[in-house]
Amino acid sequence: MLKTPTYNYQQDLCSKNNITYFYKNRSVNWSGFFIFTYFVKCMLQNVKRNHCSIIKSNYTMKICIINGPNLNLLGKREPEVYGSQTFEDYFETLQQKYPNIELSYYQSNIEGELIGKIQECGFTFDGIILNAGAYTHTSIGLGDAIKAVTTPVIEVHISNTYARESFRHQSYLSGNAKGVILGFGLKSYDLAIQSFL
């Protein structure tokens, strides 16, 4: 027969701390006990879930777009390949489309400055979108920078590099990048942002 603790009033004054228990033969309502335990567990899980949702809703994701050499000429350079829109105009479109993301943009024609920017963002941002331009095919240093940081990097190209000259088929970045998106025009950047969501 299962036993349950019951308070003994007769021994109250003689017990340690004025409290003592004895076991009286009677059945324990285990079903009620388990229902109560399950109810408490659900309440705790709900509190945790709501707490995490509040934290997540208040968090602003930070993504940096980094463009390499000659990409400052978008809109002028080979429009049949790169389109006629400037990146500054397209960047404003991205900011309007993703108002809850802190998007920043950086462009340089200098390899060392690109490496410095990756290092600057590479431990505090949630994502880096990198179009290294021609440095993609030549820069071991950029590939090492991507490997060195903790922020995931998406390699992006406006054109399909595999449909162009053979030297553009080689990338020193891809092996260390989280992923590669190419050939979708400026929308490649949009797709890269979506990959972080």
What can you see in these coordinates?
37% of the residues lie in helices and 19% in strands. It has 197 residues and is an alpha/beta fold. Strands 4-3-5-6-7 form a five-stranded parallel β-sheet, sandwiched between helices. Helix 4 runs parallel beside helix 5 (140-148). The relative contact order is 0.12.
Features:
single chain, 197 residues, alpha/beta, two-stranded antiparallel ribbon, 6 helices, 37% helix, 19% strand
Secondary structure elements and pairings:
Elements: E1 3-7, E2 21-25, H1 30-58, E3 61-67, H2 79-82, H3 87-97, E4 101-107, H4 111-121, E5 127-131, H5 140-148, E6 153-157, E7 179-182, H6 187-195
Parallel strand pairs: 3-4, 3-5, 5-6, 6-7
Antiparallel strand pairs: 1-2
Helix pairs in contact: 4-5
- What is the H/E order? EEHEHHEHEHEEH
Number of strands: 7
Percent helix, as a range, is 25-40%
Terminal CA distance:
58 Å
Strand order of the largest sheet: 4-3-5-6-7
Mean pLDDT, to the nearest integer, reads 83
Low-confidence stretches: 11-26
